[in-house]
Each structure stands twice: as structure tokens, then as C-alpha cells.
């Protein structure tokens, strides 16, 4: 008997393609995930239970073609029924629909079917009053065509209204920087992206952002914790001005190469954690192997050990297993620090990470509809430089803020004489400069 496939145990190919393609002007994305499944048409048995939303995903041209096809089939079907009713000869001629007692012709039946599908008020050929006589077959066909037409009209109106209110295209107005940055800020190495909503006069409601890393050997999203904006506060953003989001590449980050086992780090138990929480006392990160006391940082634990070594050595020999037995090598802080060597981080990214996906979600204030904007960053889309930063693109006049879109992608690099402006790899023939519109 053939065993079912286990997705987690399958050997995955090395991922090189983008999950989110850059297929719009200004190096933006259509916000379509490049994912297919192997069930093809078989999945219809499931999606038929949500056929309305499946129809909503059709393009405008596909919707119109489907509408015309079903309307034509409706008219032809009921025209054939009118022909069948007329062929059932009525000796009195009361229920006949043909001209001068002749059988009903197809083009006349087609006209009657069209007239019935769009309106209940009309007259039959040569002034026939058959609809109001004792003609149950004709009246039944008329009744069912009117009912079916009302139902289909309601469905198409609902689809058109929903399609007009579709907010998925609203996402293209959310701009992502062409390049991401990996640079060092103080003691932190950060992965940064800049985001801006060009429809700035109408701020996006409840905008928030998330970052995911896609692995090469095992495709699947891995969350990257954010320090700016703080993801514990929901990762909220004000998109009416360009905003930089930051992920700290610490020992917990999937973007950091794994270090040798650190016995002092508490077990994560599968949780996505960040070093910034422990450094400000939100939780303990280091557990002393002697007394099991928890500390927020390794520096605090080292000071604790040195204090206890002095205290335990006064007047007596340290007991076996006491703090005095901790070797000096174990107190070396460098072994517990995340690396800030960008070459090491770059190499790890090339070997292990396929791409980083940035996801922005929000609600349009004019239509109250939610939308999702996405951008993808592979290794070639990242600037690896210690002092790099996004070039300022906001100026303030006396009565208004101005955002320079042509400077939105620009990056500065620190030199020995300070900061030197460097234009990113893109040439300044921006989407807006050539007269494009969203």
C-alpha cells in the first residue's frame, strides 16, 4: 500500500524564485503570491462551496465574457421551450404564438425570450393574448424565465458592486524601497526597509507591517521580529510619511548564523523571540548555571558571577559547583554577542535564505476595505554596509510637507569624512517622472 506523502519530511528543492514577484513599474509588486497546488481542477469540489468569492477573483474581461455567455445560454434555452410549447398544437389557436396560425419560428421565439428576460411587460406577435388564457405550459415557462432572470441579475449586480469595491488594487499605491539595508546601529545590526503610501492625504487606517524570511532548504515563512515599529504593539505605522521598519539581527534571528550551543540561553520552546525584550528587563535571557537566577543580559550575569566569586572566597574555600568554579573563558562576553560582521551575515543569507517578504496590511478610509501590499528582497536587493542609511526624502515648507519620490530609493553610505550621498542602482527615470499614473 502506497504511503501518503508527509510535507514536512519531504526533501525540498533549493528555492531560488521569488515568492512575491517585482512585476510593476517602480520595482513594485502586483501582490500576487507565486504559489500553485497539484490538485488542479479537482479542487473545484472544495471551491464550489465558495463560488461567489471565486467569481470575484475573475478579471473584468472574464466577468463580462462569463455574463454574456450565461445570458445567451439563458435566452437560447427558454427560446427552445417557447418553440416546444407552440409545437403543442392548440385546436382553438388560443395558445399559439406564431403569425397567422403558422408554427412559431426560431427568430421570433428568440425575440420573445430576450423580451421576457429583461422585462415582464410586452406583447406577443400579432397581439396574441396567450399569456392570459388557459395556457399553463406557456405560463410556466414565462414564470421560470422571469424568476431565473431576476436571480441572475441580482448575482451580476452583486458581483459588479463587489468588483468595483475591490481594494486589492489599492495596495499598488504603497511604495517599498527598491533596496533593503543591513547596517550597524550602535550595538545592533539591523535589516531595514522604507515604506510610503503615495495616497498620503487619506491616511491608511490601522496600517501594520510584518516581515518573513523564506528558507531555501525548507520553503515556508519564518517570522522576523520588529523593533521599529514595535511588533508587540501591533507593528502599527503612519504611512502618510516615509517610514523605516527595522529588524534586529540578534542571536534569535533566522538571519543570524547559528552559534555553538549557549547553555545559558533559555529554551525558546518554538517561540520567535528577540534580544531587545530581555535587554530592557521584559524577560530573563540568561540563567546562572549555579544558582539558577535569571538575568536580562549576559553582562548582568557576568557581574553577578564576579560578585559571587568575591563573596564566596572571603574566609572560606569555594564549594564544589559554586560560582568560583566558573572558568574565565565562560565569562567572555564576546562568545555571547551576535556577530556584526556583514560578510558573515551576507554569506549566511546567500546559503540559507531565499528572500525576505515584507507585508503591509491596512484599511482604505474611503471604502472601508482591507488590502495587503507586499514586497520581496533577495540577496541582490540588499545593501550590506556598516554605515548605510536611507537618504532623507522629506522637506518641510511653511505650510506643507513634501516627499521627494525620486529620492525615496536613495541610500547614503558613511565615509571617513562623514556621510556621502550615493544614488541607488536605479537611474532617475522614475515611474512618476515619465508621466505614469497608478
Average pLDDT figure: 78
Helix run count: 8
Q: Please report the total strand number as a whole number.
A: 16
- Backbone structural class: alpha+beta
Q: How big a fraction of the residues is strand?
A: 15-25%
> What would you call the quaternary organization?
single chain
Spans with pLDDT under 50 lasting ≥5 residues? 1-13, 425-438
Query: What is the radius of gyration computed over CA atoms, rounded to a whole number of angstroms?
Result: 34 Å
Shape: elongated
Q: What order do the SSEs take from the amino end to the carboxyl end, as H and E?
A: HHHHHEEEEEEHEEHHEEEEEEEE
Largest sheet report: 5 strands, mixed
Describe the protein's architecture and organization.
It is a single chain. The protein is elongated. The chain is 26% helix and 19% strand. The chain is of the alpha+beta class and 438 residues long. Strands 1, 2, 3, 6 and 11 form a five-stranded mixed β-sheet that branches. A four-stranded antiparallel β-sheet has the order 5-4-9-10. Helix 3 (60-87) crosses helix 4, helix 3 packs antiparallel against helix 5 (136-164) and helix 4 (106-118) packs across helix 5.
Amino acid at each position: 500500500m502506497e504511503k501518503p506523502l508527509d510535507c514536512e519530511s519531504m526533501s525540498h528543492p533549493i528555492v531560488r524564485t521569488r515568492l512575491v514577484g517585482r512585476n510593476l513599474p517602480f520595482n513594485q509588486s502586483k501582490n500576487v503570491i507565486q504559489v500553485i497546488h497539484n490538485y488542479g481542477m479537482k479542487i473545484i469540489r472544495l471551491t464550489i462551496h465558495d463560488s461567489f468569492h471565486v467569481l470575484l477573483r475573475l478579471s473584468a474581461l472574464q466577468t463580462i465574457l462569463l455574463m454574456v455567455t450565461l445570458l445567451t445560454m439563458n435566452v437560447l434555452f427558454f427560446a427552445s421551450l417557447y418553440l416546444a410549447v407552440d409545437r403543442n398544437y392548440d385546436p382553438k389557436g388560443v395558445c399559439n404564438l406564431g403569425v397567422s396560425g403558422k408554427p412559431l419560428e426560431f427568430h421570433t421565439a428568440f425575440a420573445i425570450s430576450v423580451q421576457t428576460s429583461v422585462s415582464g411587460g410586452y406583447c406577443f406577435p400579432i397581439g396574441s393574448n396567450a399569456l392570459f388564457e388557459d395556457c399553463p405550459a406557456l405560463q410556466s415557462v414565462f414564470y421560470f424565465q422571469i424568476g431565473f432572470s431576476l436571480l441572475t441579475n441580482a448575482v451580476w449586480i452583486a458581483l459588479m458592486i463587489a468588483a468595483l469595491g475591490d481594494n486589492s488594487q489599492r495596495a499598488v499605491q504603497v511604495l517599498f524601497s527598491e533596496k533593503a539595508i543591513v547596517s550597524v546601529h550602535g550595538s545592533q545590526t539591523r535589516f531595514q526597509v522604507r515604506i510610503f503610501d503615495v495616497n498620503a492625504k487619506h491616511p491608511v487606517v490601522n496600517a501594520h507591517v510584518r516581515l518573513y524570511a523564506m528558507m531555501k532548504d525548507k520553503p515556508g515563512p519564518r517570522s522576523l521580529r520588529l523593533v521599529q515599529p514595535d511588533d508587540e504593539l501591533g507593528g502599527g505605522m503612519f504611512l502618510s510619511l516615509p517610514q523605516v521598519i527595522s529588524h534586529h539581527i540578534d542571536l534569535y534571528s533566522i538571519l543570524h548564523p547559528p552559534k555553538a550551543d549557549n547553555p545559558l540561553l533559555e529554551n525558546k520552546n518554538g517561540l520567535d523571540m528577540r534580544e531587545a525584550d530581555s535587554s530592557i528587563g521584559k524577560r530573563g535571557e540568561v540563567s546562572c548555571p549555579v544558582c539558577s537566577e535569571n538575568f536580562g543580559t549576559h553582562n548582568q550575569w557576568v557581574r553577578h558571577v564576579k560578585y559571587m566569586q568575591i563573596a564566596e572566597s572571603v574566609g572560606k574555600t569555594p564549594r564544589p559547583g559554586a560560582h568560583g568554579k566558573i572558568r574565565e573563558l565562560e565569562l567572555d562576553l564576546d562568545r555571547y554577542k551576535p556577530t556584526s560582521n556583514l560578510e558573515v551575515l551576507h554569506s549566511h543569507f546567500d546559503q540559507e535564505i531565499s528572500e525576505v517578504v515584507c507585508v503591509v496590511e491596512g484599511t482604505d478610509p474611503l471604502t472601508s476595505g482591507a488590502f495587503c501590499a507586499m514586497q520581496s528582497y533577495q540577496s541582490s536587493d540588499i545593501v550590506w554596509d556598516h554605515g548605510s542609511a536611507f537618504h532623507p526624502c522629506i522637506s518641510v515648507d511653511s505650510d506643507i510637507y513634501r516627499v521627494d519620490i525620486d529620492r525615496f530609493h536613495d541610500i547614503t553610505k558613511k565615509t571617513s569624512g562623514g556621510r556621502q550621498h550615493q544614488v541607488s542602482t536605479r537611474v532617475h527615470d522614475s515611474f512618476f517622472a515619465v508621466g505614469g499614473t497608478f
